[in-house]
Records
---
Amino acid sequence: MINITNLEKVYRTDEVETIALNKLSIEIKKGEFVAVMGPSGCGKSTLLNILGLLDDPDAGSFVFNGTEIAKYNERQRAELRKHNIGFVFQSFNLIDELTVFENVELPLIYTGVKASERKQKVDEVLEKVQIMHRRNHYPQQLSGGQQQRVAVARAVVNNPKLILADEPTGNLDSSNGNEVMELLTNLNEQGTTIIMVTHSEHDARYSHRIIRMLDGQTVTENILI
Amino acid sequence: MFKNYLKIAYRNLMRNKSFSLINISGLAVGMASAILIFLWIHNEISYDQFHEKKDRIYEAWNRDVFSGKLQCWNTTPKVLARTLEKDFPEVESAVRVNWPSSFLLSIGEKNFAGRGNMVDSLFFDMFTIPFVKGNSQTALKETYSIVITETFAKTLFGNEEPMGKTIRIDNKDNFTVTAVVKDAPNNTRFRFDYIMPWSYLRKQGNDDEYWGNNSTRTYVLLKPNASLASINEKMKTLRKTYDSDEPKGEMFLYPISRWRLYSKFENGKESGGLIEFVRMFSIIAIFLLLIACINFMNLSTARSERRAKEVGIRKVVGASKFSLIGQFLGESILIAFISGVLAIIIVQLSLPAFNKLTDKILFIDYSNAYSWLFFIGFILFTGMIAGSYPAFYLSAFKPVKVLKGTFQKTRALITPRRVLVVLQFTFAIILIISTIIVKEQIHYAKNRETGYDKNKLAYMFIVGDIEKNYELIKNELLSSGTAVSITKTSAPMTQGWSDTWGIEWEGKAKDDKTDFDRFCADDHLATTVGLQMVAGRDFDLKKYNTDSSAVLLNESAVKAMGFKDPLGKTIRDNGKEWHVVGVFKDFILQSPFFPTKPMVIEGAKGWFNVMHIKYNDKNNMAANVKSTEAIVKKYNPMYTFEHQFVDDEYNTKFKAEQRTGTLATLFAGLTIFISCLGLFGLAAYTAESRIKEIGVRKVLGASITSITSLLSKDFIKLVLISFVIASPIAWWLMYNWLQNYPYRISIHWWIFLAAALTSIAIALITVSYHAIRAAKANPVKSLRTE
């Protein structure tokens, strides 16, 4: 599904040049659940941004579903992103002014799904993450775990082929964290590819494979199953 | 999707109530000002544009050299209309409209005053004035017919049928109402209560065929497809054919589309006119709106950090830049809509005052679809302008940056926000400076020596039986102790009704066309009005019975005539001889902003329209007026008593300038208000975003004063930059404005200093509220928020 080769990304400020990705090559197959680990600054967030089409690489190849997309412009990336990729963030990133239902509905609106169909899909997915009873609440009225479940619901409502999770349990206590991890595992079992950045060995064990990074390169890969 | 935008927009409005309040009130005030000005502009540019035949309607004008200058004017000989119809096949009809007359109208025992014109019978054929009753064919056919407006019909007859009713004119002639027309709209030069046929004017002996008597206005309707250029070419030589006195004078036809806005001529060519005001007002309207929009832009972008996360999330879940621009524009249009509705309320509430100020009858025509279309367009336009910059700014955020907290606000020296604040204050300071200068100029002209004593001086027009009973009225006023001195004059002291270049004197050069103001007075003029005599004496018929042909000259006239010893000299005017008995100091007859002209005041053999009364200051003024009314009523019972004080009348000379001054003050005030609203919001934002810095500084020992000044300093800098930009612009604008007035102030440096101090003070007061609040806050709290 994803095949990146010799990927490079360099951040420059006036005086400092930081190499975030250094000729990185990774392959991820359809249906895999991959955890990316490594110390702060190793480049794992940069990798996730590029995989999520939020950022573009400076050099190298990025093949997504058989198409080379490293040179895509922002509009092309946005188009590809909204149909294929869902995101889960450490800080949930829900829109405070929208209710639970409206937050989850958002991706469907942008892909042009009809209102009646939207309602059905949103309700379905809210049911799945067991937050249906809070559908008309605002994010501030929910606990962290509940917020992250809403975020997961939002990430999957469009049936994306790939879910990118950036430390999804980072702001949660362990029981809430486990709930979210169970949710992701279920999704993966239903066929969604998941790439998750994490600091937690515990969470990483939910995955099939752990990629460990240092200074913009992969150091080891542990296959767990 | 739209519903979603609306929802977010609404919730954002409610969440940030103070920002919403600032945005909405600023925009509402800006929009209301713009709408008021648009109403005024619309009224001006639509003047007389509703006549169906407007493409073919013209007014006859003259062009000739006077006092060495090529001048244009629009009064014509009465004989012109028929001549045009006779000589020019292109002319369909020509219609004369004489000056408004003020007949006494009586129905039975009741008397009425009204304003009416006498016109040629095709008047209603040329101009579109809808008939309620009767028709244009028969309305003015008979000499004793009268056409009245709907409102005037109500005044005269109440709810009775007016058609066929009789109105007695000046107590001698009976007129029949032949038609009722709609009241004139608020955008026409033809304002009347009644219209009477020209044939009545002829019957009274007031028509003439004399080409030298430019005494009426002549309107011309050309045939379709007639060429204006070829007619105007022929009209150049019209006077050569008919006018032996002034054969060099040219005439031309002037189109209806230019009457209102362009008819100010200089050296024979159009030069400015009302259109300059229209342009200036348009600019002011646009700027007021822009300033309000700038508030919205600045506050929206200042708060962008709060919205950044939302933008990031929306992008991540699939929003395109385009749809985000749409969302933010939608929000600004929603705010513009709320503001627009408020603006309409403000306009409706302030229209009476604005109408009084502009001397107009403006209103919003709610029944007109175009009004609504304009209003909707105006809201969309305002929303787009206000929202465009924030929309592009916000939608350009990169999700990676805003969601990962690396979002940095700029610390650049020149940011768009600062540029916009400078723009606002530049405009405000220009208006402040202009306001001060306009007020100074009025003050300066008001303090100018008038040249006579306006105090306790009143006048009334000689109407009805006053002429016949003049001596009786005069004697009774004097003997009763009401008045101390009385004189008859040709015109009020404050108005020049007559001027001539035909005065002859010994030693006059052949080509001398010096224009003299011509005034007449019968007796004791200098005593009555307090002229300052520099040589000779006042008219005194009792002592010198030859004084009926005496003349007084002002100092400028003596100079123009080159007299070394003017007393006893003889001058001629219009075939009559006058001997000089006195010289007086120039007085202001017309505009206090212009130099006085040479002037002759001819004695009792002249013509008289006005009676001037110097009241006895031993009596209470109200008692004086009351006793005058009783006396005048006794000898002129048919007419209502009307009477003016000269100093009130003199003050109206400043009306136009005072209006300019009031408008400048108003616009300056509005600009300052809107700009300060924005500044207030920005100050709140700055204080909030620097809260940690303030906390650290306080912990390190900074005083409240030093922090307040730290926060205010930036804004004061912007105001100072604005001042530097505004000063030369304001100077240039006002320098040009002052050129309209030969008697004018020079622009002093202190005006600029005052404007600078005022604007800094206003900005400081605005900013300091938030600055002091932030400075006083407990640092422990502010440091904990991070």
---
Amino acid sequence: MSLSKPVMRRERHAPRDTTGSPPTPTDGMIEITGVSHRFGDREVLKTLSLTLRERRVAVVGSNGSGKSTFARLLNGLQVPTEGRVLVDGLDTRTEGRAVRRHVGFVFQNPDNQIVYPIVEEDLAFGLKNLGLDKREIAARIDAVLTRYGLENQRQQPSHTLSGGEKQLLAISGVLVMAPRYVVLDEPTTLLDLRNKRRVAEAIRGLDQTAIVVTHDLDLVKDFDRVLVFDDGRVVIDDAPSRALARYVDAMG
Amino acid sequence: MRLGLYLAGDSLFHRMSPGPKLATVAVAGTVLFFLDDWRALAASLGVVLLLYAIARVPWPVAVAQIRPTLWVLGLLFVMLALIEGPLAGVVMVLRFAALILLAALVTLTTRVSDMTDAIEAGLRPFARLGLNPAVVSLAISMAIRFIPLIAEITREVRDAQRARGLGRSVLAVAVPVIVRTIKLADDVADAMDARSYDPTPRSRRDHAAVAAADRDTGNRAR
């Protein structure tokens, strides 16, 4: 396992714990090295090591298999009990804030992530956090509303949107911030068929690298890579054609 | 549910900046409490209604602003009429009606974000006393955002209990609603974190350092 590699010490900014190889400039990848995660006594992830470079990665598995925890590790919302997660060389443990600027996160329930009462105000929330000026904020909001066909909802109270529109707003709220990765945690679970298609279309069209946690196997059948989680481990790691078939078989 | 929220429009009031509007409500509110001639108060109410016309707020929306308070106003009228006579009741009802409608007009013609920006600016002098104006304005916005959502949670809980044959019980509804609301707060905090929310006052935030870190890793706006 890669943790046993010789340790090279390099102190670039402040002295910091660099157990492992130094961060190397990369063409975009997330490196998960020797990651375990425990909630109390329960071990939800068991010594995971993975490198994600594909543009579309699906994470599937039964409830409680560790998928959501895995997703939360990718942008530092959760820091692993052991091991480390590097996003383009940035450690989620020490540079959580920088990591979160590069890794957008869309949660399952859009209601829990829409912060402001009006659609355009909510889109501005993240942009203000980035310290952008008013003109840039307005331009990005225009672009994202047009892209997802929400122009007419611009000044509507966010709670009056339909479920699909709310999810598109949640995705838009993340995309306006121009992250390089987007992690989506069960983005279609609460949606009806029509809205599911709308959101699937939006995911397909993302310029970003997307990591999608889902039970919706249809959504990910044209992805580049599928990880199947079971009991805190990745048990299948393959192209969708093979991985999904094996997963369905295993479920009986 | 339309909770005195912004009504898009392009009237004089929509274009007015929120600071003066809020100041007007504060001054008018004070003046209204010194007026106790019913004719003057009726005229004030008339002026407020005229302002609604100028702001081109549809009448049903205007009526909806005052309707939830009608029973309180009715109760007040009855109490004052019994204690001090009907005229005192009329004075009080006119006063409150004018004030409530005026305040509602401000919320109807001002975007929440503009309003909170104004409040933030107004609170800035207190920053030295340790108050973070940005947090106050965010809290106001979020309160407005989450009122309908918590109302929905309450409705769901009540429906679920009714479906299982439970009658009216405040406690039985309150406990699950509070639990779900706390869970909601947790999720929202995560979502805000994920969208780079930084609670330190804007003036003290080091955007230059963040921008430098971005250059390091090559993050550019698309």
---
Amino acid sequence: MKRVVLRDEFREADIRPAGAYHQYQEILEKECRRFFGGRQPDLGARCRACQAALYSVFERWGALYGRCEQCLSLFVLPQFSDEEARNLLNVPGMGELWREQIINPSSPERMRLMIQPRIDWLLEVKDQYAPQARCLIDYGSKYPQFLEGLVQAKEFDRVTSVDPDWRLGNTPWPDSVEKLSVGSIGINGTDLMAAFDVLERVHDPAAVIGWMKSCLRPGGLAIVTTALSTGLEYLVLGAKAPNLNPIERRNLFSLEALSDLLTRHDFELLELSTTGRLDVELVARAMEEHPKDFQRTFWWYFFHHRGPEALQALQEFVQQHQLSSHCRLVARRLGS
Amino acid sequence: MAAPLKAAIIGYGRVGRIRAKCLAARPQDWRLVGVSDPDRSQWNGLGVTYMENWTGLLEHHPEALFICSTNQAMPELVAGALERGIHVFCEKPPGRTLADIERMREAEQKAAGVKLKFGFNHRFHACVQEAKSIVDAGRLGKVLWVRGIYGKAGGRHFERNWRNKREISGGGILIDQGIHMLDLFRYFCGDFDEVKSMVTRSYWPIEVEDNAFGLLRNREGQVAMLHSSATQWQHRFIMDIYLEKGYLSLQGILSSSGTYGREMLKVARCHYDGEGYPLANPEESETYYDEDGSWQLEVDEFARVIRGEQEKWQGDSLDAYRSMELVQRIYASDHQWRWSQEAREELARVQAVT
């Protein structure tokens, strides 16, 4: 199995304009506090990766995060359905704010730093492991440009988007990409399935992995990105992690748990990398915002007494050693 | 399911033992029936028949021979096995000279259906395979040039090593290690027609080269630059492949000695300014590999070839011939090199024949 390190100048402000994103988070926090306020956390819930017991670690926006005592994955308690999550996010103005003030202004940089690299990665994966692949499903699509880029590459006969992000609204859609729902996808027929940033925001991530397996033909590939509990950002910051929200980051697997989960579903891992490049920047920001929580720690000293070269080296180190909080993976479906 | 192929190994040093492990890892494909090695100290541990002389192995009716011996012994061993209808896997280099590889190819041509494969395991390293897949996909355009550095520090008693006795090895670091890089140049660019070189013995008290610098060009205009060294005090494997729309850099290679660093493939795609000029220093991705499966993949391929499941294979006798030809042309091209004249005479003889 291989792992990849990305070297570029990725900064959070490139893809999330600070003012609008702050406003988005404020609305989300308010809605979360309202939603979780009247609910009791289910402390008897089990880990969705390994079924071990959870213990509570911190509260965020009214929700409790429980950590698996065995695999270190993190889950929001109490659990809630995907429909409840969608209703919570579907407050007036939320979709417009997301589209018009966050996504659209950052579109060129998103294209350069996120979307085009994903297109390149997916085509590279196809070249290397599945050159004959002709059909692709993108589950939970967030970016029409991503689908458009794949269509323009002329490498697939069929590109299908399943359950695209509702916040896309009436965003123009590539003509040749069909939109379908989960239930309408046949079994054993797909060559490649992509699920970018999906596992962390669905009610039952193991069921999603099982569904992906059932859609893929034997030998087909799952291409996945997701947030990880074992990245620097979450291990150091916990509840103070700037982008942690209990709706869109309700399941944070540990690297090991994610790997085991895929293996148990008859996938062979071909690549498992933590290519997140924002950990150090986010930790630095959180320390500025919450100085009392970090003073006298090693991290405080490191971030305040070492220069930018050391911080850059740390970010490269966490990528190289699979300690960044965002991962990407390629897994091949085994069996017949 | 077909019965496992009966295999024997000639030469049970470091490489012979690696091949034995590969065979043991695939009991469905292979059964090791015997090993021969003149060094009796090697005779322990495997639980198979040991012979001082390889002909003794024939009593065990091997279907395939793995030849991991010294270079001068290869032509006779390879030809002898092929003449007996035994498939042969022969480690690089393919003998010492073009005459050696010619003899092996002649025996191959006479032994219809009997397979001959040479061990150029670097083609099977994960970083090389991934680089090949990226180049072949064509998304980065045509290869413009490649540059390879492959070197080691020599090592303890290097001056006494058989690899530096010309009568046994045929040459020095170039034929021993540099030939891997030449094989990779061919893997990515095809054959080269033009060769310029400088070959030196600059440090070690040996009769063969301890450094070779080669500049190669093919009919496509692709240029390859080689530095093969036995005075590379920090062990190094680097291969840069520059294409029209980006570049690949293979750095470090997992080896049995573990001294060439982590195996890594760097990939970058060009970005362009508003007028379409490429911008310097594009973003890079680095892929790290933790396991060396190259030896096993080579042996697995050989099993498929013997069983008729694969028609073409890496390291066939033409690959071996062409790489050896490049070695000899590098020797020949530097007129100051002490063995240059011999190499020129050999190349002239081959040209006269063909």
---
Amino acid sequence: MAELTYLQAISDGLRTEMRRDKRVFVIGEDVGVYGGAFKVTLGFQEEFGPWRVLDAPLAETAIVGACTGAAIMGLRPVAEMQFADFISCAWDQLVTVAAKQRYRAGTPVPITVRLPSGGGFSGGPFHSQNPESSFAHIPGLKCVCPATPEDAKGLLISAIEDPNPVLYFEHKHLYRRIKGEVPEERYTVPLGKARTHREGDDVSVITWGAMVYTAEEAAQQLETDGVSVEIIDLRTVMPWDKAAVLESARKTSKVLVLHEDTRTGGFGAEIAATVAEEAFEDLDAPVKRITAPDTPVPFSPPLEKAFIPQVDDVTAGLRELAEY
Amino acid sequence: MAIAREAEPVGSLKEVREAGLDREDLLGVYRNMLMSRGIEERGHILYRQGKIPGSFYTGRGNEGAAVGVATAMGTDDVGTPLHRDMGVHIVRGVEPWRIFAQFMGRVDGPTKGRDGNVHMADSKLGLIAMVSHLPAMLPVAVGCALAFRIREEKRVAVGWFGEGASARGDTHEAMTLAGVRKLPMVFVCDNNQWAYSTPTHLEFATDHVADRAEAYGFEGIVVDGTDVLAVYREAKRAIEKARAGGGPTLIECVTLRMEGHAVHDDAFYVPKELFEKWAEADPIERFRTWLRTNADMSDEEEDEIAGEVKKTLNDALKRAEESPLPDPSTLTEGVYATPEDLDTPHHK
């Protein structure tokens, strides 16, 4: 085991898979000579050569479309969007072509698209978004949102190995801030299996990505008040581990859904609806959501802080549920 | 001012032989064109009989362009043909009964009833099924070419698009990527002069779509799409150039869409004189005349080919009508691929 940052774990996962499987290649803007805007692929071009680490023109449609074609020809492309926000430019290729090809034409499209996402550092409206729910809504796509370095590596390898288009949302605010023990060997973390980040009895928090850490801080504060909080880290929002969420809901009887994405139609709505449909009888309080408001992500620090759910927001929500 | 090279028509049998087709091949080309049109004509009948759900699209007038390009492709080459390119499917060997099954939404169509019309492809024959969003398949075709380049295979990808779709950004991005990486890629523009009801001068401001090629760093060629042999010769050159590492080519095949955008559309907006003029350049009739003049196609040979096509289509229709409709209980199957789905020749 080595202690790696979340970012190093992503690099390690990608490098591990590229060394093991010659079919894996990387394409994106500035991923080669520069090593990627966040340096995830630093040194990759030296190790794997210019035809397995390709600097693409500024053309997201071509990047994702070319990945689809190369995947159908038997390769395992990994595309990097410089920021998750730019995936909007490749929406058509993902949603119209890649997502539907297996269902309608029987052709699997095993591609991975890496999406540096999330806010917390004044990236503004176009470098901070969390668009996972838009893609989780599309049949045929999978959405992965790791929170820990260990999961970042294992989920990336699973994403590359998966025979479907997988969107891998890597939270930028975790890149260098979060460190953890990561096995040196190759391993996979299955898509669709949640992780119990913290065990508790009184309230369940269902969350993923950077919000796992916000929930953890809030849970620690509540512990001093004698409230025991369980945190379920979904790890992947499509497929999502309905069984684990329902089990936790039945155990604690109170559910808080927390995400950094905006509220209306966010993936939390799907979770809340499912808990209401399938665990209504087990609930002792209405399902509560804490999310960003329905606005673009603002730039200026006080505005952005008000936008992203903070520990105090979660603490207040948990207290409300605990006292219900 | 035009920039693209305008291809000459093909003259003699000798010239065709030099381009790689013997007399037997030529009769096969004629057969494939007849088959292509025959399938669509019968599709029209099926549509009027109420046996085809949704709408129905044909490529009447484009048979020469589609068959010409596909004939020039190698067995291991791949392509992304569109809704006017039935001939490509025929040349690659899709069985006609499966096409009729596709039209009628039956389980034996290549998409098993999940998609309709020419939104189909048999991946084992090196084709990838199109989507409605045009030209979204161009970046995909470029990705195939990229895979060939990465693996250093001597294979070529052919991507089709229409002159209408040339307006969209995918065209630009696909040609940019293929150009900068000198990928083994041939872009084929089916310019049938009408994007639904919109004429070419409202789709692009140059003389030809192929004029753009130079801006992407490769050659553009305009060819008469009703001249199957000229299309074949230009496609063959471009494909072999790409195979040899010479990078992409853009071939623009000029035809006229001889019917409406789809079966519901009577194309009232196309001047009658234009239809009359292009009817004289019907690709099948033109090639039939050429074969009789230059390759001594006899009455017997002509009848034999027409008879074989007719019989194939009759049998195909019968077999397709026997194919069952999909079972609604299968609705949710196959949204996601399983690892077993990757057990294909491409993925090994």
